[in-house]
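ARCHIVE ENTRY
Sequence with per-residue tokens
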Amino acid sequence: MRTRSRGTARRYAVLLAAGLLAAGCQSGTRPVFHDAAATPAAAPTLSDPPVPSSPQSVATPRPAGSRTPSRAPTRPRYTPAPLTLTLTEPLPPIQGSQITALYQDGCGDPTRGLVYVEVGDPASISTVWYEYHVATPVSFDGANHGPSVLGDDFRVWRGMIGPFDADPRNAGGGPITVTAHGVYKDGTARSVTATWTLESCHH
């Protein structure tokens, strides 16, 4: 009796399982079997690579109390005013008439002349001197390093030139070149040149 009961129970259980499976297939739902061991692991999260930061300029520390050196202001270069040369008749202390030629000694008049040097900016002048050259076959050269000053403002300086001895080799005369030099208080210098004539001389 027990054996039959067990066999009958198994038969009912098989029929019940078959009935449940058939009912699931008719409704369109497929049985899902879960396997705990086959559960997929979570995918690793990918992060963006770190972006390198742009380099920043770092100020160089300065010693305490230091100052940035400043450029010294440039001074404008001084330009001396021009000098003026004049040759006149030798009639001191009054300035005579301007002349353009001298005569050789014994060949006419005047044989001497006064050289006047006028300074454009007398407040800046230190000294004035002049030199001369007579370009004849027998030449004459000289200089005056101590001309006299007229007045108190150092504007006009004056000195003598001549006479020049007559020589048969200089019968045709020649040019007289005078160069005046002005030396200024700041060390700069300026010069001016003028040319006159030593007249011919025929005995």
